[in-house]
Design brief:
single chain; five-stranded mixed β-sheet; disordered N terminus
């Protein structure tokens, strides 16, 4: 790993590859105090707090030394690891990113990262060949192959993805030995969100507008509620939600005839798939859609799916704040 400064069908990993991966992990974990390469790192305090034991959704992970070669198996973990100043040696691209590839908003932070996807069936042989010292994902994504992943390198799984993104960041930061960096990044984000909320409130005479999130996918249209990544960011800003989304759940699927449930002062729209595979054009041609106050008032905003939906981390949330500021007609928070 390069350090920067401030399921369907599953493949079985060959026993020989596993043996090599395990021996490499154990050797890396034990370290060599007489090695010049590790001495320089130790002198900078990079080994402080290690070895350590991290409790996670599948048990505990014994991490011998501060991880340097990390593989991440979902987009939230990719956002988190790069946020903390590391370039993963391997990662998967967002599973609903139609054009393929890693998120464009992280392009400058993942030079040299190998694509080890697809997410539903990570390439275990390729992951092992990268000789990682830590693998990060979630139980909801990779419970079925946890044992195989953990045989390659210590594997830390959060329970799920989406709304608990802040707790997930804390978990991964613990595994990486970068808790201070995570706390500062999250505090900075929270301050920006609060600043944005105050600016929006001031612009609206002390009242907060409502905001709705509509996602077009291959299937029924989705409205995103409070217990989703985008929902938590809107809540951090202090924006109100329409009744259909002011619910402690992740999302609500609606038909074209029910899209009036999306109406709000500000409507943010994302498209997860090829637009021709979604109901976007069908929905937006209906009288129900055209009758929305947000449509009539020019308050519908197309925003990137890769940040509003797949990002699930501080960096994506910061991009969301910029989009919200622009939509609300206030300065972007510092």
């Amino acid at each position: 790993m390069t350090q920067r400064t401030p399921s369907t069908r599953l493949r079985t990993l060959p026993a020989a590859v596993l043996a090599v991966a395990l021996s490499t992990t154990l050797l890396a974990g034990c370290g060599s105090s007489g090695s010049g390469s590790t001495t320089a790192a130790a002198s900078q305090g990079s080994t402080a707090g290690f070895p350590t034991t991290v409790k996670h959704a599948m048990g505990t992970a014994e991490i011998k030394s501060r991880p340097q070669r990390v593989v991440v198996l979902d987009s939230g973990e990719l956002d988190d690891v790069t946020l903390l100043g590391l370039t993963p040696v391997g990662a998967v691209s967002p599973h609903m990113k139609t054009e393929g590839g890693f998120p464009s908003y992280l392009r400058g932070e993942i030079s040299g990262t190998k694509d080890v996807g697809p997410m539903a069936e990570p390439n275990l042989e390729l992951i092992a060949s990268l000789k990682p010292d830590l693998i990060l994902s979630s139980k909801v994504r990779h419970e079925k192959i946890y044992a195989q992943l953990n045989a390659i390198a210590p594997t830390v799984l959060a329970e799920t993805t989406g709304f608990p993104w802040k707790a997930n960041l804390a978990l991964y930061a613990q595994a990486l030995g970068r808790q201070d960096e995570a706390r500062k990044a999250l505090a900075d984000y929270q301050a920006r969100a609060a600043e944005l909320g105050e600016a929006i409130k001031a612009k609206n005479g002390g009242a907060m507008p409502t905001a709705s999130v509509v996602r077009f996918v291959a299937g029924p249209t989705r409205l995103y509620q409070k217990s989703s990544f985008s929902g938590t960011v809107l809540q951090d800003v202090g924006l109100g939600r329409p009744a259909s989304q002011n619910v402690d759940s992740a999302m609500l699927e609606v038909s074209p005839e029910q899209v009036d449930k999306a109406d709000a002062d500000l409507v943010f729209v994302t498209v997860a798939d090829d637009p021709t595979k979604t109901q976007e054009s069908q929905v937006q041609s209906t009288l129900v859609w055209k009758s929305l106050n947000a449509v009539k008032n020019g308050k519908v905003f197309n925003v990137p799916d890769e940040t509003w939906m797949s990002g699930i981390g501080v960096q994506a949330a910061d991009q969301m704040l910029n989009d919200i500021a622009k939509a609300a007609g206030v300065p972007v928070p510092h």
